[in-house]
Amino acid sequence: MSFSQTVQSFIADVRNRPLYLWGAAQTGIGIVHALSRLGITPAGFIDKRKEKMKGQVYGLPVFLPSEVLPRFSKKNRFFIVDTTTLHADQIAKECRAAGLVHTEDFISYEQICPYDFQVIISSVCNLRCISCPVGNRPQGMHSGLMSANKYEKVLDKILAESPLISMIQLFNWGEPMLNVDLAKIVEITNSRSVLCSLSSNMNRVQGLEAVITAKPAFFRVSMSGNDKTYSVSHTGGSWPKLLDNLNVLSRLRKTTNPEMVVEVAYHVYANTTQADIDNTKKLCESLGFVFRPHLAALLPLDNVLDYKNKKPVSPEANATIAMVRLPMDEALVRAGAQKDRACSFERTLSIESDCSVKQCGLWTRPEENEVAHDFLAMPLDKIMKKRREHPLCVLCKAHGLHRFCSIYTDDASNLA
Question: Most buried in the list 89, 186, 248, 315, measured by CB within 10 Å?
Answer without folding.
Answer: 186
